[in-house]
UniProtKB/TrEMBL annotation:
Record's keyword terms, sorted: Membrane, Transmembrane, Transmembrane helix
InterPro entries: DUF5058
Lineage: Bacteria, Bacillati, Bacillota, Clostridia, Lachnospirales
Sequence intervals crossing the membrane: 6-30, 50-75, 117-140, 160-181, 187-208, 220-240
UniProt keyword Ribonucleoprotein, yes or no: no
UniProt organism field: Blautia hominis
Domain of life of the native organism: Bacteria
The protein, known as: DUF5058 family protein
Keyword Membrane listed: yes
């Protein structure tokens, strides 16, 4: 029997987990609403907060949807749907899947039907992000305490330290972008897409700061992602990638 990454069984498993997470969200929403009532907060104010929060989650959800669509091309829909709906992020899931496929010499241009490859990708994606579930509850207080000490001692050095950590994290993903530059102009396509995405994000940042478009803060990431995807779709055939 041929393995199908879009099988009903996988959809059922993913759906059960997501339903459990949704049930948790509803449970804590009800608890928070009741707690607000007990504190004397007006019902209209709480409803307004709930509605505004729900609206502002739509913009980040666009980025997640784009990630699901991107990963579903070769992993099917259930796994990306599960990963990005619960704990994953496209900035991690895609490099993890791509690195595993490259190590196994598998092309991601079509849906994976080899169960061994699919399982390997699942394990890498899971084990790679699992330590965060342990480190955060165990060490977050110590980490935050250390960062606060640095910032309180020297605020400028604290900002430099945080920026350096962020750039270090970003640099870890740049290896994939520059990995194929030796094969010619085709290998530069990811770099062109990266630069175009950065340009769009920079324009959004200027509009937010200079024009006061605060509402754009929640849409900057989806705009840069969508724009970069459209740019990639246009430039790839032109270059011959």
């Amino acid at each position: 029997m041929k393995f199908q990454p879009n099988s009903a069984f996988l959809f059922t498993l993913a759906g059960l987990v997501i339903l459990f997470v949704i049930a948790q969200s509803i449970f804590f929403l009800v608890r928070a609403y009741r707690r607000g009532k007990s504190l004397g907060i007006e019902t209209a104010q709480m409803r307004k907060t709930i509605v505004s929060t729900a609206v502002f989650t739509l913009a980040p959800a666009v980025s997640i949807l784009l990630g699901v669509i991107t990963l579903s091309k070769f992993l099917g829909l259930p796994l990306p749907w599960l990963r990005l709906s619960v704990i994953g992020a496209i900035t991690y899931e895609l490099p993890a899947a791509t690195s595993t496929a490259n190590a196994l010499h598998i092309s991601l241009s079509e849906t994976i039907t080899d169960p061994k490859v699919y399982t390997a990708i699942c394990w890498v994606m899971t084990l790679g992000i699992f330590p965060g579930l342990i480190w955060v509850p165990l060490f977050i207080k110590k980490i935050q305490g250390g960062l606060l000490k640095i910032k309180n001692k020297d605020s400028k050095w604290g900002d430099i330290f945080m920026t350096a950590m962020f750039l270090g994290m970003i640099s870890a993903f740049l290896g994939m972008v520059f990995s194929d530059i030796r094969i010619g102009l085709k290998g530069w396509i990811p770099i062109f897409v990266l630069l175009f995405s950065a340009l769009l994000m920079g324009i959004c940042g200027i509009l937010i700061k200079k024009c006061g478009w605060k509402w754009l803060e929640n849409y900057a990431l989806p705009i840069s992602m969508l724009g970069a995807m459209i740019f990639a779709a246009v430039i790839t055939p032109m270059i011959g990638g």
